[in-house]
Amino acid sequence: MTVLCHTTAGYLDLSWLDLALGAALVLLLGLGSLRLRLGIGRALATGALRTTVQLLLMGLVLKALFGTTHPAWVAGLALVMLAVAGREVRARQKRPFAGAAGFGLGTGAMFLSSFTVTVLALTLMIGPEPWHAPRYAIPLLGMLLGNTMNGVGLGLDRLTQGAWQQRREIEGRLLMGETWRAAIHDLRQEAIRNGMIPVLNALAAAGIVALPGMMTGQILAGADPVGAVKYQILIMFLIATGTGFGTVGAVLLGSRRLFDERQRLRLDRLSPPRD
Amino acid sequence: MLDATDLAGPHFGPLSLRLAVGEILCLTGPSGAGKSLTLRALADLDPNDGRVRLAGEDREAVPAHEWRRRVAYLPAESAWWAERVGEHFPGAADANALASLGFAPEAAGWEIARLSSGERQRLGLLRLLALSPRVLLLDEPTANLDAEATRRVEGLVTGYLREAEAASLWVSHDAAQHERLGARVLRLENGRLAP
Predict the structure, then answer these.
(1) How far apart are CA A101 and CA A87, in angstroms?
(2) Any CB–CB contact under 8 A between A209 and chain B?
(3) Is A171 in Cβ contact with B45 (below 8 Å)?
């Protein structure tokens, strides 16, 4: 219905007018929220704005980066993405750890899992030349970080909130002579499961209900569907692994941090709640 | 046997106290004076300063979870995390122990949600005694009990102290109870021991 032009890349390019029409749909939802007093209007507006600005910036950065294969530029962008993800994880918790641990715990776990999985996938499986070619490395890392960030954020939030709510029970177990490991065991499992649920759901529903974004993108760009599916299967495995190890790592480190060397529950290490 | 020197936390102390084998020391004082905080510090549940020794051994020499088995603390309200009573006991709940406070052996299978506050308090004491502690830190253990149950708890604890050569620090405001227990009484005011 709008001006669509064919490009040499073999897919239908979007005009700015198309994006404006998409934005109008979001606006419609915003108006609906306002009318029903759902109170999500502001979050929706800032979110849509952030998506636009952040993705445009990323597009420009990637365009510039594709001209170079210098590893320092790729590494720099990767670290910026990690830092933003770490900030986001902290922001998603109601009572994050206070001080450096609040940022470092989630960020460290995401670094270890996402970066390791990305490097493994690039060197062992996908194999671009050179392996850190930004055209492959950055989108792959982005997908992994985005999902790991969700898992780590959900896992840590459940852990810290749960420790606060169940402090009497946890201290009760300590008083019965249990070790800190035994006293936090149930909550720890619950937190890890909580962080993994989105990925487990995505694994189960992929292909039947949901057509994952990356695969859809490749197909829209003219790729062979079976080739796109193979890519998507690999990505799903990588995301599950990255999210799983990231969540487990963050929750294990976090639960250790909840106790001191005398196995006391140290809720004073958490920040006061935010809303 | 239990020897605390310059025990202090953010809101109480410093204070020093000493418990002999078989002794009961009753702690009184207005609410907010730091009685519970003192007991928590002795069980090493909150960060605190000072030297605490049990039978000559520094607490730092004992792993914290092991220390809490030996210097066992019964809070005013005990916490229950599993579904049934018996799951909170170390090993199987002993029928004789249950009977000593008037519970049938089936009490081990009771659901926590159906317990009255008095039952919780008495069962909380029983599960703590099952750890065979050397020191009992009791925070008003008879507050929700009628006269008869109170006597039973007093009898159980004094009997245990004799048998196990243990000692107890007991928060209680009842002068008649101090007398029945044959206890030395210490008064806590604004986090310090009153002279």
Answers:
(1) 12
(2) no
(3) yes
For chain B, say whether A180 makes contact (Cβ under 8 Å): yes
3-state secondary structure A130-196: CCCCHHHHHHHHHHHHHHHHHHHHHHHHHHHHHHHHCHHHHHHHHHCCCCHHHHHHHHHHHHHHHHH
Angle at A39 between CA A33 and CA A45, to 5 degrees: 70
| A147 has pLDDT over 60 | yes
Contacts of B69 in chain A (CB under 8 A): 177
B64 contacts in A (CB within 8 Å)?
262-264
Tokens of B10: 């953010």
- Residue A270: which pLDDT band, with cuts at 50, 70 and 90? very high
From chain B, the residues in CB contact with A262 under 8 A are 44, 47, 64
Entry pTM: 0.88
Nearest to A88 by CA among A156, A175, A13: A156
- The dihedral built from the CA positions of residue A251, A257, A263 and A269, taken in this order, carries a sign that is negative
Q: Which residues share a beta bridge with B19?
A: B2
Secondary element (H or E) of residue A201: helix A180-205
Domain parsing of chain A, residue ranges:
1-65, 71-269
Q: Which of B62, B69, B78, B81 to mutate to test the interface with A (most CBs of A within 10 A)?
A: B81
Extract the tokens encoding A93. Answer: 């918790």
Return phi, psi of residue A16, to 5°. -65, -30
Q: Which of residues 117-156 of B touch A (CB under 8 A)?
A: 127-128, 131
A37 has a chain B CB within 8 A of its CB: no
Q: Which of A172, A233, A246, A156 is nearest to A202 (CA)?
A: A233
- CA distances (Å), B152 to each of A177, A271, B97, B126, B191, in order? 25, 45, 12, 12, 31
Q: In chain B, which residue's Cα lies nearest the Cα of A167? A: B79
Return the SS3 of A264: coil
Comparing CB atoms, the residue among B44, B73, B79 nearest residue A264 is: B44
Whether the CA torsion B109, B115, B118, B124 is positive or negative: it is positive
Rg (CA), chain A: 22
Listed by number, the residues of chain B in 45-74 with a beta carbon closer than 8 Å to a beta carbon of chain A are 45-47, 63-66, 68-69, 72-74
Q: Return d(Cα A113, Cα A199) in angstroms, integer.
A: 15
Cα angle for residues A257, A261, A263 (degrees, 5° grid): 80
Q: What is the ipTM of this complex?
A: 0.95
Which candidate from A169, A175, A180 shows the least CB-CB separation from B43? A175
Asked if the model's pLDDT at residue A2 lies above 60, the reply is no
Question: What six digits make up the tokens of A54?
Answer: 């952040």
